[in-house]
Design a protein that fits this description.
Length: 174
């Protein structure tokens, strides 16, 4: 009834107890981050919702309640976001050169936008343009052969390395 105090919190329904079945819910109660209107004022606070249904509320340190992949303890996903809600976005998830690739997504040089996994490998003195070591251009002092790269040597023998032939030709000036 309106006159009873079923949860023994000191407030009755007729005294604005908004849930007389819970002792933690009454006028003036402290909000508990439990998804309930504990203080019986204006409903459930917005920081107590779990809009993305990941099991964490903002008041429980969910740093982005719009994404279910972002919550305390989540695995980092290489998506440029702070998925685990600890210390911000990891440094290997940045894209400093704005080429659309992150270090965690195989960008081997995040300072130059011309070097990334989608770049075309060109012979330019050993720079790995496409971030694929198997297609790396020959370095100075190297010439291309059918079986791979051969180091030019002043000795009477030549050392030959058996790797895939790069899809470019050796630099013309050495």
């Amino acid at each position: 009834s309106n006159e009873s105090d079923d949860d023994n919190d000191g407030f009755r329904i007729c005294e604005d107890d908004c849930d007389d079945a819970l002792a933690t819910t009454f006028p003036g109660a402290t909000e508990l981050c439990d998804g309930l209107d504990n203080d019986c004022v204006n409903g459930v606070p917005s920081n107590e919702s779990d809009d993305d249904n990941d099991g964490f509320r903002i008041c429980e340190d969910d740093c982005n309640d719009a994404l279910a992949t972002t919550f305390p303890g989540a695995t980092e996903l290489c998506d440029g976001l702070d998925n685990d809600c600890i210390d911000g976005v990891p440094t290997n998830e940045s894209d400093d050169d704005n080429d659309g690739f992150r270090i965690c997504a195989n960008d081997c040089d995040d300072a130059l936008d011309t070097i990334n996994p989608d770049a075309t490998e060109v012979c330019n003195d050993g720079i790995d343009d496409d971030c694929d070591p198997s297609t790396q251009a020959p370095k100075k002092g190297m010439t291309q052969t059918q079986t791979g790269l051969t180091r030019a040597s002043t000795a009477t023998t030549t050392t030959q390395t058996s790797i895939q032939t790069p899809p470019c030709s050796a630099p013309t000036s050495m």
